[in-house]
Amino acid sequence: MMSSLFSPARSAAALAVILACVSAPASAQTQADLFDDTTLHTVEIVIHSRDWSDLHEHFRSNDHYPCDVIWNGLRMRNVAVRSRGNGSRYQNKPGLELSFDHYASQQRFLGLRGLVLDNLVTDPSMIREATAMALMRRVGVPAPREAPARVFVNGAYAGLYMMVEPVDTVFAQKAFEQPGLLFEYRWTYPFFASFPGESLDAYAVLFESRNLGVHSMVELYAPMREMFRTINEAPEGAFAQVDSYLDLTSLVRALGASTFMAEWDGVFGYDGMNNFYLYRTGEQAHMIPWDRDQAFHALDYPLLAGVDQNVLGRRMLEDPALRAAYVQAVTEAMAAAQGDGWLEREFTRQFALIRDAALADALKIATNEEFEQAFAELVTFARKRPAFVQNELIPLR
What we know:
Number of strands: 11
Distance between the termini: 87 Å
Helix content: 40-55%
């Protein structure tokens, strides 16, 4: 009797059932589930009350604090959380960066090393960036995925946030399907793609290395110096030489979408270049967009605002082939926005998804009336921006 109850076959079958039950919940959750933007997610953070108070008090610092993070029944322990952001640093509702590998270098959450919780304080509509990134991906530009979440800290509602896929080496290698070196552009002074000079230190100030391990300054920044040298010094009629150092095809596609969306704080920003990463494979860098909370700035924002000041933009449009490619990129972005009324429908869908959570967010900067008005302005943008852009394109054709 004992042998029949505990036979090897019966034991193996029982073990298989047990393993299936244990692994099923975890295996059912994926990054695609985490960044499902048709769902209003819930993220719970459990942190010592003193640490949470200190994070608020010292919100301008990048000090890390240990916490647990719970999403969709999955609990990740020993996570580091810190305040984040530049212009979005806000004491009452801090932007948060979760680092799953800070205390344990190999720890991952659904394959992610980290997760950004954007506090949405610089955009009264709270949906600009998520929509902008969705349109970027719609036209084939690798861009971070985003999804809205109600965030609770120690059981208390901390407000509506946007979960943002971090641009790190995990993201970049997946997007470009090969290893490379990643750099985050850090706004330090108004920089318009002029040649920073021979010293590699100047490039390290502008482009912060986001790479693990030890790399020499020459390995990191010598190709970048040559990129900016070529942008500034390539002979007239030979600007295509820049493509050896900067992927002009993907750059033009991203700039076409950005300028259609009236992005005023990007590559052609009002105060110099801003909000992008460069991922270099070999000697060629690829641009990755970041932080698009200032997209859809105004429906009559000039298509080429900031281009004349920017050496890269000015010289790019002086090249007939690249100018034609840019016009095509804008046209394609406009078609993607207009097709089936996608942009207006996307604004409306996202607004409806977050509305109740946003109205209940007592820590947001905008009033409820300003939140509603900002959405109305986005709908007007979706309806009227294409006609304005069509007229802007006429002299470029």
